[in-house]
Design goal:
Keywords: Copper, Disulfide bond, Metal-binding, Signal. This protein is α+β, with helices and mostly antiparallel strands and 125 residues long. It is built from 2 helices and 7 strands, in the order H-E-E-E-H-E-E-E-E. The chain binds 2-acetamido-2-deoxy-beta-D-glucopyranose and copper (II) ion.
């Protein structure tokens, strides 16, 4: 009897820990609107500066569909404004993209846009 009650207490304590951990994890994820009020547009290169991004944080890219897009690229795609084959393209105008740990690179691949600073590089810890 006492043994059973003991296990129940341990199980309850474990469950509480899990609930707390899960809660913290959820609370930690942040959502960022790229470009803030301007939305996803030109000269975005400095927007990530001074922000503390974490893996799992969400970026929201707001723009008029058909005028821009968001392409997930690699470092050379970011530096050279090129689109790697098989790159994922978002184009709804309110795209939500979850950051992965490490480097995350996004460009708009409409002709000339990335060259005009429509690109961001983010390091998520
Ligand atoms: C943008 O990327 C898509 C997907 O790779 C590609 O089909 C399209 O041609 C690219 N646009 C430009 C202007 O490079
Ligand atoms: Cu664009």
């Amino acid at each position: 009897m006492a043994k059973t009650r003991g296990s129940a207490v341990v199980a309850t304590a474990l469950m509480m820990c899990l609930v707390v951990l899960f809660h913290c994890k959820v609370a930690e994820a942040a959502t960022y609107t790229v470009g803030d009020a301007s939305g996803w547009t030109f000269n975005m290169v400095d927007w990530p500066k001074g922000k503390n991004f974490k893996a799992g944080d969400i970026l929201v890219f707001n723009y008029t569909p058909g005028t821009h897009n968001v392409v997930v690229v690699d470092e050379s795609g970011y530096n050279g404004c090129t689109t790697p084959s098989g790159a994922k393209v978002y184009q709804t105008g309110k795209d939500q993209i979850k950051l992965v740990k490490g480097q995350n690179y996004f460009i708009c691949n409409f002709t000339g846009h990335c060259e005009s600073g429509m690109k961001i590089a983010i390091t998520a810890t």
